[in-house]
Amino acid sequence: MIRVMLSVATAATLLAACGDKPATTTTEAEAVAPAVSPAEAPGNTAVDATPMTDAAAPTPGANSFTEAQARSAIEGAGYTGVGALTQNADGIWQAKATKSGAETTVSVDYKGVVTAQ
Asked: What is the pTM assigned to this prediction?
């Protein structure tokens, strides 16, 4: 019985301590405005969408691209007649391909960088 009375008294004390919510007036514009205003211009872009081609050398590393994705990256870099793709021990996809009439070996590293050798 004492525990019940103690619990009720504690609950009543907590409710009394909270008090009433003060009345505030907000305009409709304030109600829909963002809490933080956006910057004038972003400091950096979220995603770098520039194509990465013709780097100095492919970067070795665990490659998660499928053969079809590697072929698409090579074709997206302007190569045609992409031959059979193989993946070497460094995780780099390689194939023979043609660009501007010249056949060359092309590589795609784990970053998606297309490099002619």
From this structure: 0.53
Distance CA(12)–CA(8), nearest Å, equals 6
Q: Do 105 and 94 contact (CB within 8 A), yes or no? A: yes
Residues 101 and 15: their CA atoms lie apart, in Å, by 82
Distances (CA, A) of 57 to 22, 53, 107, 117: 66, 10, 9, 8
Q: Say if CB 93 and CB 99 are below 8 A apart.
A: no
The answer to whether 88 touches 56, Cβ cutoff 8 Å, is no
pLDDT, one tens digit per residue, over 24-57 is 665 655 556 555 656 666 665 655 555 555 557 8
Residue type, position 3, single letter: R
Residue 81, sorted as left (phi over 0), alpha (psi -120 to 50) or beta, turns out to be left
Residue 53 contacts residue 79 (beta carbons within 8 Å): no
d(CA 85, CA 72): 11
